Amino acid sequence: MAEPSLHTYLFFSIAITMLLVSPCLGLGLDTVREFLTREEDTIVFSLIERAKHPLNLPAYQDHACFGPSSGRRRNDSFAELFVRESEEIQAKAGRYQSQGEIPFFHSRVPFTLAPPYNFTIDLYPAAASVNVNDAIWGFYFNELLPLLAKNGDDGNYAVTAASDLACLQALSRRINYGRYVAEVKFRGDQQRYTALISSKDKDALMTLLTSETQEDVVKRRVEKKAMVFGQDVTLDGPTETGDKNTSQSSFKVSPSVVYKLYDQWVIPLTKNVEVEYLLHRLD
Fold first, then answer.
1. pLDDT digits (tens, 9 = 90+) for 194-237
2. Helix %, strand %, coil % for the chain, to 5?
3. Contacts of range 13-18, beta carbons closer than 8 Å, 24 or more positions apart
4. Is residue 7 situated within a structural domain?
5. Whole domain around residue 178: which residue ranges?
6. Band of the pLDDT at 108, cuts 50, 70, 90?
7. In this structure, is residue 10 part of a structural domain?
8. How confident is the model at residue 8 (pLDDT cuts 50, 70, 90)?
9. 187 occurs within a structural domain
């Protein structure tokens, strides 16, 4: 039997991913909570995968290249080109037909590979385009990546960039899911939200959306997941348990880094998405 082609593999991988991560029917508070909790697992595992590789700085340095169609020279890093080209293939496979998936580089490549599917439209059309992918791209490469990867260069730039793409897509999906969070909250208290939206009161909206107690639970939970998922498992005895205060190096990815990720970027950016979505909810 012939080996499946790369395009076949990519097609089925993307199709399965879309089924697993796309927001599903019956949008409600329970649906939102379940999705956000499951995305924590995806994010932690993607960080663990990226931490396997050294920093590989040449993959992020700009270099001159020729655009595929125009022939004009552009200064893009290898990682950026990898993400851009990967998203074009995934766009053909229909990944971005789902409202839950947002590319970092918008492409005009036609959706041609996968059979059409009638995805649910849970978001308010005038607000659905809100996203913070530019901010995610910036903090990932400039601030998070140096905390994840050790210094070094093993030359495996394609594998490294593929790990970066997995991290970026998981973070984008989680953070931009704030649109769904905002929609559910709006539906649950339309009168109060309508008044604040009409007055364009961003500060009051942010206060109404914020639950410091729940945010603390989330940050401590992802930190614990990093401890559990990041241990080495053997058949000689129970899984080793590390002390996050004294043995950060015993974990595949530092639990404190995952805590910081949610504390400084994931939660604040998600709330920014929620506020911006709500500001357009009555358009």
1. 999 999 999 999 999 999 999 999 999 999 999 999 998 888 75
2. 60, 5, 35
3. 14/90, 14/93, 14/94, 14/95, 14/114, 15/93, 15/94, 15/114, 17/95, 18/94, 18/95, 18/98, 18/101
4. no
5. 28-232+239-279
6. confident
7. no
8. very low
9. yes
Angle among Cα 57, 62, 68 to the nearest 5 degrees reads 125
pLDDT tens track for 34-51: 999 999 999 999 999 999
The Cα 241–Cα 117 span in angstroms is: 45
Q: How many domains does the chain have?
A: 1
Across residues 154-181, what is the average pLDDT?
98
**Mode of pairing for the β-strands spanning 63-66 and 73-76:** antiparallel
Q: Which long-range contacts (CB under 8 A, 24 or more apart) does 142-145 make?
A: 143/265, 144/257, 144/261, 144/265, 145/50, 145/55
pTM summary value: 0.85
Q: How many CB atoms lie within 10 A of CB 201?
A: 15
pLDDT for 69 equals 46
Amino acid occupying residue 106? H
The answer to whether residue 1 is domain-embedded is no
Does the pLDDT of residue 111 top 60, yes or no? yes
Which CATH number goes with the domain that contains 65? 1.10.590.10
The SS3 call for residue 66 is: strand
